[in-house]
Amino acid sequence: MIHRTAPRLLALLMLIPTMAFAAPDGRKLYQQFCSACHGLEGNGGVGVPLALGSFQRGVDDAFLFKSIRNGRPGRVMPTFSGLSDAQINAMVKHIRSWVPGSENEGHYRKLGKVVGDPERGATLFAKTCATCHGEKGEGGHGTGVTFSRPRDQLIMAPALNNIGYLKSAGDQVIKGNILYGREGTPMPPFSQLLSNQQVNDIVAFIRNFEKDIEVWKPAQVKSAVIKMTSSSSFEETIENIKRAAIGENFRIIRQQNYEDGAFPESQQNQKQVMIYFCNFEYVNRAINIDPRVGLFMPCRLTVIEKDGVVKVSSINPAFLSRFYNNAELDEACAELTEMYQSIIEEATL
């Protein structure tokens, strides 16, 4: 006699393989991992625009796959080592859907083996490429968003001496981009200005970066918070912080209870306050490096008294910098950390 639940169990078991091996949804994966920087429809933002026909015809699927896998260490684009090959392939397929046929139309496909002289290429690179890509191929400054780059430029010039780029771009892709440029970006075509051999020489020079490239790694900062115990009273510590901040060329913006907005004023703990201050010269410089630093601006310190002990704390900008994957930002965040420490030390001693 067959148990009445047997057919249901059998049907469920038949569904398991389908559930386990369902193809990844490239659109959803792109929205989850890529759209915040590259735009929902690939129109760009912090990241470069991916829906440009000139971009898609200039790169192969291997470039897209490896770019997602390896990222661009130190250049905003993170690595996605946790994604499976199937997931990345699904994302590549979704990206290609914006410019159908672009993979087959790629102009790099017509190019043969690239053989060049890196020494001759160095001279040519200095004359034709360094203005945008940097003398050592370090790329343009800032991120891809409008506020941190010249407004007439759709994208920043990419770093060519970046291990993520060099692992992703084959010689033919690099050569094709030089010959045909990127329509819709500041990258012009050089097919009428340089000979085939000259382009090969530049490619050889760029490829030579791999020999002694320095791979960026985030600063090894263990503590996410800067905190110290004050030897002064709660009220004195607050005034000390304001004086110390002004001494470091900050302007005091406001002081508010830590619980402001969470509870009615009568129910707020009056021994927990936040002090907001700003150095506008520093903020402008940092935002022009990477506008995302606005997430932890303006500067602020928290003062809390509990059981008669007064403590001062703040986020550690040098620790947060590791999450931005931006080598330029590390120095600015380390500088801000030193300012915080100086202010807190002066206020609490």
Low-confidence stretches: none
Q: Provide the helix percentage.
A: 40-55%
From the spread of the alpha carbons, the general shape counts as elongated
Sheet/helix structural class: alpha+beta
* Strand coverage percent: 5-15%
> Secondary-structure element sequence?
HHHHHHHHHHHHEHEEHEEHH
The rounded Rg comes to 27 Å
Termini Cα gap: 84 Å
Instruction: Please state how the strands of the largest beta sheet are arranged side by side.
Output: 1-5-4-3-2
Q: How would you explain this protein's 3D organization?
A:
This protein has 349 residues and is of the alpha+beta class. 43% of the residues lie in helices and 10% in strands. The protein is built from 16 helices and 5 strands. The protein has helices at 6-20, 26-33, 35-38, 53-56, 61-70, 85-96, 102-105, 118-128, 130-133, 163-168, 171-180, 196-207, 234-247, 280-289, 317-320, 327-348; strands spanning 225-229, 251-257, 272-278, 299-306, 309-315. The protein has a 5-stranded antiparallel sheet with strand order 1-5-4-3-2. The termini are far apart.
Characteristic key phrases:
single chain, 349 residues, alpha+beta, five-stranded antiparallel sheet, 16 helices
Gist of the model:
Strands 1-5-4-3-2 form a five-stranded antiparallel β-sheet. It has helices spanning 6-20, 26-33, 35-38, 53-56, 61-70, 85-96, 102-105, 118-128, 130-133, 163-168, 171-180, 196-207, 234-247, 280-289, 317-320, 327-348; strands at residues 225-229, 251-257, 272-278, 299-306, 309-315.
Secondary-structure map:
Elements: H1 6-20, H2 26-33, H3 35-38, H4 53-56, H5 61-70, H6 85-96, H7 102-105, H8 118-128, H9 130-133, H10 163-168, H11 171-180, H12 196-207, E1 225-229, H13 234-247, E2 251-257, E3 272-278, H14 280-289, E4 299-306, E5 309-315, H15 317-320, H16 327-348
Helix pairs in contact: 2-6, 5-6, 8-12, 11-12, 13-16, 14-16
